[in-house]
Amino acid sequence: MALYFNLPVYKDSYDMLLMVFKYCSKLPKEYKYTLGERLKNDCTDVLLSIFEATKNKEHQKLKNIENALNHLERCRLYIRLFKDLKVWGVTTQVALNQKIETISKQLTQWNLHTARVQP
After folding, report:
1. pLDDT tens across 62-106, in order?
2. How many domains are contained in the chain?
3. Which DSSP helix (H) or strand (E) runs through 97?
4. Range of the domain at 24
5. How far apart are CA 88 and CA 85, in angstroms?
């Protein structure tokens, strides 16, 4: 079992969380405590789900990975909403969506591998 903080998916998720906190700190008050908080919570939940997946048995690991993927899609939705509301520009949306895509690919591969290994 690898240490969770050495996993590339954990590192990328942590980087995304830092980016989200940085971008959310500059949000207008109207969005900071609503959508901004939800985005930060879901990004944190992605990271926590990855941590839980590294600590659990195979059957629970699949649930944790699926949970992380669900939170990741919610993050993508909030980011799109910020862009459509013209709160964030295209540059911010692209930077975060690239991280999300990288994380999503890694989680999907991990999920497929875990499902194959599971009896």
Report:
1. 999 999 999 999 999 999 999 999 999 999 999 999 999 999 999
2. 1
3. helix 90-117
4. 4-117
5. 8
